[in-house]
Amino acid sequence: MQTVNRLIALREAVESLRADGEIALVPTMGALHEGHLTLVREARKRAAHTVVSIFVNPTQFGPNEDLDAYPRRMAEDSRLLEAEGVDLLWAPTVDEVYPAGFASSIRVEGVSEGLCGASRPGHFDGVATVVCKLFNQVLPDLALFGEKDWQQLAVIRRMARDLDLTRPLVSDIIGVPTVREADGLAMSSRNRYLSPEQRHQAASLPAAMKRAIAALERGDRASDALGELEQSLFASGFASVDYSALVDAASLAPLSALGNSPARLLVAARIGGTRLIDNMAVGPA
Ligand code: PAF
Fold first, then answer.
1. How many whole angstroms from 116 Cα to the centroid of ligand 1?
2. Which residue of the set 33, 36, 49, 200 is catalytic?
3. Would you tell me how many other CB atoms lie within 10 Å of the CB of residue 70?
4. Which domains does the chain have, with CATH numbers?
């Protein structure tokens, strides 16, 4: 596996890979876990070459968020990626991505607003901007993202469609199903902040979501099913619930009950100081 930190070296490396096959990009912020490695394995199945980026993107962190505390494990991550057969690791410095005088930002209206966008102002502007830059830097034929961050995926697809991106085409932005621990908790770099007791309590999130989905599929109104879900999270030790919502799977428009089109249940809740997000399909696929 080749590792590059400079754009000029990236462009050379990508050009030589492209000469003999398609390139898949897996954008990450590092601190890799099984969820990321699943994206890498899927990328390797779908393209001749896999490029992984590791960049802890400062513009998607709010002033009170954990940018400095965000885990950075480049040596360990690099070993994991090498063992997975990744061709190229793109690990730019902050200056390489945001050189002095950098003054542009991409805002995706609609899908960025509400849900995580409401409690993390500016977060999705940072995500859309850096992902657009990563796409332009690597020019991948396809790109893979975890479905765990459902709103992020919707924002990236909208951005690619609105800006007429061709590498990758919006149809080649692939969502990969969430990888879960044995007790159902969605894998996340943030799970490592949980104490053993909090980790145990955290498993009540997917369990409560499954009960809410069963209620919605029986015909309960969203307000009832979500009210019960939130109560059950507080009873299990969650400190707060940022949101729980039943939304249209594509537009993220809120729904008051399950209809005939694919829907999604999305939740963000805090256990101690750790914010966990999860989402699951509801009703017809
Ligand atoms: O999901 C992430 O890890 C990040 O938001 C991403 C897509 C790599 C952009 O920084």
1. 14
2. 36
3. 16
4. 2-176 (3.40.50.620), 189-279 (3.30.1300.10)
